[in-house]
Amino acid sequence: MPERPFPDSTDPTPIAEWLMSFDSTSGAEERLMHAFADVLAERGWAVTRIPVSGARVDVLATSGDGPYVTLSTHLDTVPPYFAPRLDAEQLHGRGSCDAKGIAAAMLVAAERLRARGHSVAMLFVVGEETTHDGAHAADAWARANGFQSVALVNGEPTESTLALGTKGAMRVILRTVGEAAHSAYPHLGRSATRALVHLLAELDTLDLPHDELLGDTTVNIGRLEGGVADNVVAPSAEARLMARIVGPSDDVWHRLKAWVGDRALLERSVEIPAMRLGTVSGFPTSVVAFATDIPAMPAWGTPYLFGPGSIHVAHRDDEHVSLAELRSAADSYERIVEMLHDQPFER
C-alpha cells in the first residue's frame, strides 16, 4: 500500500496523523523511521540515521552548527495498533499522546526555530516501550561523535507540565519451587503456586522507601505463571514484578531479599534509576511515576521532560490527546528551547 503524502502543515495535528498511519509497535519501527528520515531530509534538515538493530534506526535531524538543544521523543508504541481518528476536539489512536503527537508538536516548534536561525536538533528513537535500546544507541553515538547537545527536552505525556522528577523502575522475577503430585493427594506434594500466592499477599505490608519529592515506592504484579494442569500439584510458579523506585535500587533489592528469605528465588532484571530533572521558569511543574529514556541518554545534556496529553490514557484502547493541547505544546517547545539557548550550561 503506498504511503500517504507527508502534510505540508504548520499544525501538528495532520503531522501526528501521518506518523500514526504507520504501525510502529516496538521492534517493528523501521518502516516509519526510514520514511520519516526521508521526509525530514526533503524538508532541508541534516539527517543522520543512527543504527540500533537490523534495519531499526534512530533519526537525528539538525539545523545550524550547535551547540544544540535537542527535542527528543520515541516513535515506537505499545501493541495493538489503532489507526488515527480525528473528531472536533481530540486525536484518537495509538501514539496520539504516547508519543507521536508529541513528535509532531516538536517538529512544528523546531521548524519555527530553524526559520529564525536557531541551532536546533530533533532526535526520534525506537524501543522506548521495551528495552530502551534506541536511547542507548543514541547515547553511544553522541559520545563516539562528540555531538554537542547541551540540553535534552524529552517528550512524554506530562499534561503540559515540566516534570521535576521521575520514578525509576526495577523488574524482578519471583520464583517458587514445589513438588508435583496428584491433586487428589496434595499431602504427597508441595504446591509452588500456593507458596507464591501466599508470598504475594504480603507485598502490601512491606516497608519500602519513600522520597519527599517522588513519593512512595510501589510494586506491580505484572504477570503470573505456574503449574502444569488442574489436577497436578504445581511443581513451579513465578511472578514478574515491577517496582517503581524513588531512590537507589539497592535499597529496594535488599528489602525484597529480606522479605523473601529462603521461601523463593528472586532474580534482579532490568533497572532504570529515578531522576531529578531541570526546570524552566514560567511553566507549571509535576512529578511523574513512569520511566523514560532520559536515564539512558546522559550524553545529550541536562534533561527536561515535557509533553501534552495524559499518561493515564497512554497504552489504553481509548488513547487520545486534545487538539488544543497539541497545538499549545508546539508553542511550549519553542519557548523552552529559546529559554534554554539563553541559559549557560557546563559541558
Describe what this molecule looks like in 3D.
The mean pLDDT is 96. Helix 1 packs across helix 3 (100-115) and helix 3 packs across helix 7 (323-341). The protein has two domains: 12-164 and 276-341, Aminopeptidase (3-Layer(aba) Sandwich); 168-272, 2-Layer Sandwich (Alpha-Beta Plaits). 43% of the residues are buried. The protein contains seven helices and 18 strands. It is an alpha+beta fold and 347 residues long. It has helices spanning 12-20, 30-42, 100-115, 133-145, 192-200, 249-260, 323-341; strands at 46-53, 56-63, 68-74, 85-86, 90-92, 120-125, 149-154, 162-166, 168-177, 210-211, 215-216, 218-226, 236-245, 265-272, 275-276, 285-288, 302-305, 320-322.
The first-to-last residue Cα distance is: 47 Å
Number of structural domains = 2
CATH level 1 name of the largest domain:
Alpha Beta
CATH-assigned fold name of the largest domain: Aminopeptidase
Spatial sequence of strands, sheet with the most strands: 1-2-6-3-7-17
The helix-strand sequence is HHEEEEEHEHEEEHEEEEHEEEEEH
For the report, how would you describe the main beta sheet?
A: 6 strands, mixed
Quick one: CATH superfamily of the largest domain? Zn peptidases
Helix content percent band = 25-40%
Radius of gyration: 23 Å
List the helices and strands and how they pair.
Elements: H1 12-20, H2 30-42, E1 46-53, E2 56-63, E3 68-74, E4 85-86, E5 90-92, H3 100-115, E6 120-125, H4 133-145, E7 149-154, E8 162-166, E9 168-177, H5 192-200, E10 210-211, E11 215-216, E12 218-226, E13 236-245, H6 249-260, E14 265-272, E15 275-276, E16 285-288, E17 302-305, E18 320-322, H7 323-341
Parallel strand pairs: 3-6, 3-7, 7-17, 8-16
Antiparallel strand pairs: 1-2, 2-6, 4-5, 5-18, 8-15, 9-13, 9-14, 10-11, 12-13
Helix pairs in contact: 1-3, 3-7
